[in-house]
Task: inverse folding
């Protein structure tokens, strides 16, 4: 996943984050835009599974020992 980092706001970007004095964004342009978006979506889904109850997401996950 390609991350853009800049000291000033990044133009033509749908979503960016300002943290620790820099702007960060996922590169959603260029030849790897599709892969970058999918990688971000996967990371978001993994994050959601770690911080929310899976029953609220309607995901059929079973963990057995």
Result:
């Amino acid at each position: 996943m390609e991350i853009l980092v800049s000291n000033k706001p990044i133009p033509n970007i749908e979503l960016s984050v300002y943290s620790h004095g820099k702007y960060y964004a996922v590169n959603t342009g260029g030849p790897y835009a599709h892969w970058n978006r999918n990688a971000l979506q996967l990371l978001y889904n993994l994050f959601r599974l770690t911080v929310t109850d899976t029953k609220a997401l309607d995901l059929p996950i079973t963990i057995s020992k």
Remarks:
- The two ends are 34 Å apart (CA to CA).
- The chain has two helices and three strands.
- The longest helix spans residues 33-51.
- The chain has a mean pLDDT of 84.
